[in-house]
Amino acid sequence: MFLLLPAPLFAGPLERSVVRILALLLGDTPRLAAEAPWDWVAHGVLFALLAWVWCGSAARAGRAGGVLLAAAGAIAYGGAIEVFQMLLGYRSGEWMDLAADAAGVAVGALVAAGIWPRLLR
């Protein structure tokens, strides 16, 4: 799907995401402090809640495939939001936002499936 969109839509957001990842890896904390990661935290928390709700009924029914399908749908939803933000022009889609969405979905799906409490023991 991403290959069908014009490359200029991805150049800026992808470049900013790569710079942020490098700043994290190289320990450039002043740069990251200027770009507070609260946006990523918000993405992760909101998508954890979304995944918990979407995966909950399949998890209660004991359907692992349903949990995986709901989690994949939540990640696809996050990806669609980021792509549409790139297309709008006045918003910017970010790859790191999508990564935060996916991490939140993983946590939410694990909580919904009851796996997370077992991992903490």
Could you describe the 3D structure shown?
With 121 residues, this protein is an all-alpha fold. It has one domain. 81% of the residues lie in helices and 0% in strands. The longest helix has 25 residues, at 64-88.
List the helices and strands and how they pair.
Blueprint: H1 8-26, H2 29-34, H3 38-60, H4 64-88, H5 95-113, H6 115-120
Write a concise keyword list for the protein shown above.
mainly alpha; single chain; 6 helices; 121 residues; disordered N terminus
Summarize the structure.
This protein has six helices and no strands. The protein is an all-alpha fold. Helix 4 (64-88) runs antiparallel to helix 5.
Number of helices: 6
Give unreliable regions as ranges.
1-5
Radius of gyration: 16 Å
Please give the domain count.
Answer: 1
Q: Could you state the order of secondary-structure elements as H and E?
A: HHHHHH
The share of residues in helices is over 70%
> What do the pLDDT scores average to?
77
Describe the oligomeric state of these chains in a short phrase.
single chain
Euclidean distance between termini CA atoms: 40 Å
Per DSSP, what share of the residues sits in E-state strands of 2 or more residues? under 5%
Structure summary, number of beta strands: 0
Structural class: mainly alpha
Characterize the overall form. Answer: elongated
| Largest sheet geometry | none
